[in-house]
């Protein structure tokens, strides 16, 4: 999951590169309608880490924030649109990193599923 005790990742166009300090507090699949819309997928999949350990190594000027609700902020690349981070205004000490942006891919467990009542019927069984 990265060297030097860090996770590493980037957006689709490579304009933004980041690292985040371990540990991962938990990883989750969120099936809320906002995550589904933002990701264009069944869920938003995230690793929850300490926000103090997140460093944008390249392309900080490309990170764009969208206030999707009073409680949530979503960060994405303004060039390619890649979803990068989700933050709760109630928990500024944590940040959720989109698992699909990690390099190498995340190898830890996903312990939580959120808003399972919104899990799409078209997902495969099992």
Describe the model:
- This is GFA family protein.
- Keywords: Lyase, Metal-binding, Zinc.
- It comes from Duganella margarita.
- It is globular and about 40 Å long.
- The longest helix has 7 residues, at 33-39.
- It has one domain (6-118): Metal Binding Protein, Guanine Nucleotide Exchange Factor, Chain A (Beta Complex).
- The two termini are 26 Å apart.
- 27% of the residues are buried.
- It has a seven-stranded mixed β-sheet with strand order 6-7-8-9-4-3-10. Strands 1-2-5 form a three-stranded antiparallel β-sheet, with no helix packed on it.
- The chain is 6% helix and 41% strand.
- The chain has one helix and ten strands.
- It is mainly β and 126 residues long.
Short description:
6% of the residues lie in helices and 41% in strands. The chain has 126 residues and is mainly β. The model has no long low-confidence stretch (mean pLDDT 93).
Measured as a percent range, the helix fraction is under 10%
Provide the residue-averaged pLDDT: 93
CATH architecture: Beta Complex
Give me the CATH fold name: Metal Binding Protein, Guanine Nucleotide Exchange Factor, Chain A
Q: What is the total tally of β strands?
A: 10
What is the ordering of alpha helices and beta strands?
EEEHEEEEEEE
Rounded Rg: 14 Å
Beta-strand level of the residues, as a percent range? Answer: 35-45%
State the assembly state of the protein chains: single chain
The CATH C-level class name = Mainly Beta
**How many structural domains does the protein architecture include?**
1
Low-confidence stretches: none
Terminal CA distance reads 26 Å
What is the global morphology? globular
Structural class: mainly beta
- Report the major sheet: 7 strands, mixed
What is the count of helical runs? 1
Strand neighbour order, sheet with most strands: 6-7-8-9-4-3-10
């Amino acid at each position: 999951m990265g060297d030097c005790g860090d996770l590493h990742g980037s957006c689709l166009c490579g304009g933004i590169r980041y690292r985040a300090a371990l540990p991962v507090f938990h990883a989750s699949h969120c099936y809320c309608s906002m995550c589904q819309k933002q990701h264009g997928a069944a869920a938003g999949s995230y690793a929850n880490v300490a926000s103090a350990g997140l460093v944008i190594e390249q392309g900080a000027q490309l990170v764009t924030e969208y206030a999707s609700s009073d409680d949530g902020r979503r960060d994405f690349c303004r060039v390619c649109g890649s979803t990068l981070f989700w933050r709760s205004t109630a928990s500024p000490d944590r940040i959720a990193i989109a698992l699909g942006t990690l390099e190498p891919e995340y190898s830890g467990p996903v312990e939580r599923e959120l808003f399972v009542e919104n899990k799409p019927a078209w997902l495969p069984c099992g």
